[in-house]
Amino acid sequence: MLVHILLLAFIAQVKTTSICDRKSCVCWVKNVQNEDYQGENVQCSYVEKDILKGDYELPDIVNSLDLASNKIETVHSSHLLDSTTLIELLLNDNAITKVDVNSFQLPELKRLDLSNNQLELIDEEVFSNMRKLEYLNLANNRFTTFTKMNFHHLSSLNDIVLDNNNIGPSLKDSNLFDRSGSGLTNKIKSLSISGINLNTVPDNFFVDAYDISSLIISNNNITSVFEIPFTLKHLDLSDNPIKEISAEDFTDLIALQELNLDNLLIKEIPDYIFEHLPSLRKLTLERNNNLANFSKLAFGREVLDDPAEFKLESLSLKGSRLTRLDEALAVPLGELTELDLQGNPWRCDCDFVWVKTLQLSDQYTQHLRCDKPTTLFNAKIFDLKEKYFTCESRNRGFEIAIVVICATLGFVAIWVFLCLPTRKTGCGLFKNMYGPSTAYSILPMAASFHNDVDR
Ligand SMILES: *[C@@H]1O[C@H](CO)[C@@H](O)[C@H](O)[C@H]1NC(C)=O
Ligand SMILES: *[C@@H]1O[C@H](CO)[C@@H](O)[C@H](O)[C@H]1NC(C)=O
Fold first, then answer.
1. pLDDT at 35 over 60
2. Is residue 98 one of the residues assigned to a domain?
3. Ligand nearest to the CA of 241
4. pLDDT at residue 423 in the model
5. Closest ligand relative to 166 C-alpha
6. Residue 165 confidence (pLDDT)
7. How far is the CA of 237 from the centre of ligand 2 (A)?
């Protein structure tokens, strides 16, 4: 209601047709606290193809303009893109192939979203009046080379998303942070280059990115871990054909808080691999279809006894191929606030029964199920009584072996005792036992043997 009154008052003020007169646009006062901006927000998604051509005024206190999903093909100069108050502009999900050089008269703009369009290049002059731009999203466009993007004079840019542009091959020849040319500046804090067809990360790739704290390099064709910038707080290496990870890959990453290693080709989590990540709070190792081995020393030896040393808060091993986890991990894993072990083919035997001592919320127990033994296939581990977690077959073999050894030793002892030269008579008596009395002496022994086995 208040919003409407404000809006009416506001519309009355402006003389030319305001964008807010359009029924299909929604204009409201953005009332979100703790955001960069706070003021008018205009939403004109799903409106029309030539929204930029219509001679609409943008009310002069608008902070955020949403023009997403309007089938815009060319961005050109327009009253809508001329504002000294606009801080955020969303042009995502259009059909933009071209941005005219003087389109943006937006000196205060901090956030620009051009994702999901058909851009192949952007003239460097396009950004010349946008010195305050901090965030630029160009994901899902048609860029094939980085040199056609030209961001170098976006001197405030610290967060860029380039996902799903085929620029990986071109990075062999031109560095993303090329100081002389078109590259990103060393102000970059957050870089997302998921799905860019990158085969290898060239040496010294991040050498000029000395403030980078977030790197998303998932869904590429990287086969081995590269030299990771030590300033990173968040690293996503998921969905790459990485066959092996080792402790050396993750040493000295003292700032790293969140690490995603989902869907790699790794077979094992080796000893000490996460030991030297003192800030790590969140670790995901989901959908690792070859991962069958998780070393009990993955987090080092100290955490096994002293949970105070264990700073991780969240761990997910969902959907991998683990069959067991060492009981020694009960102490550190018991410290986690979130632990997802679902979707692994767990072997529910006496070695794994400890897992039931973990405090897991319902959302993490629903698909926590046994794979082996076959009698327990698909049983929910947290619904299953402890007595079913047996190592019966192994124990039975062990018992049989003990019984057989004892029996053999017994016979040898008796034989030695009775048949020594000084006890000839006794030995004769022993021989008689193979006569009618045999049944009586063998039977009780056989009976007790069976009892042992059936226990
Ligand atoms: C991915 O990398 C492998 C080996 O590095 C290479 O043989 C293959 O062609 C690459 N795939 C693509 C799509 O580039
Ligand atoms: C796990 O690793 C150990 C030692 O490296 C190896 O003996 C064992 O076969 C592995 N287990 C699986 C299931 O790969």
1. no
2. no
3. 1
4. 56
5. 1
6. 95
7. 24
Query: What interhelical angle do 424-432 and 392-419 show, nearest 10?
Result: 130
* Residue with CA at minimum distance from ligand 2 atom 10: 293
pLDDT tens readout for residues 125-170: 888 888 899 999 999 999 998 766 667 778 899 999 999 999 999 8
What's the pLDDT score for residue 32? 54
* Ligand 1 pocket test, candidate residues 221, 222, 242, 243, most atoms within 8 A of CB: 221
The structure tokens listed for 271 are 């000893």
**Quick check: pTM over 0.70?**
yes
Domain-located, residue 427: yes
pLDDT, position 39: 63
Percent of the chain whose predicted confidence (pLDDT) is above 90: 52
Q: Ligand 2 centre from 293 Cα, in Å?
A: 6
Please give the residue range of the domain that contains residue 420. 392-454
Lowest-pLDDT range of 15-29, 276-290, 330-344, 425-439 = 425-439
User: Would 428 be classed as within a structural domain?
Assistant: yes
Does position 69 have pLDDT exceeding 80, yes or no? Answer: yes
Number of other residues whose CB lies within 10 A of the CB of residue 377:
12
Domain count, the chain: 1
Q: What is the pLDDT of residue 162?
A: 95
Q: Classify residue 26: in a domain, yes or no.
A: no
- Picking from 40-54, 193-207, 227-241, 292-306, which range would have the lowest pLDDT averaged per residue? 40-54
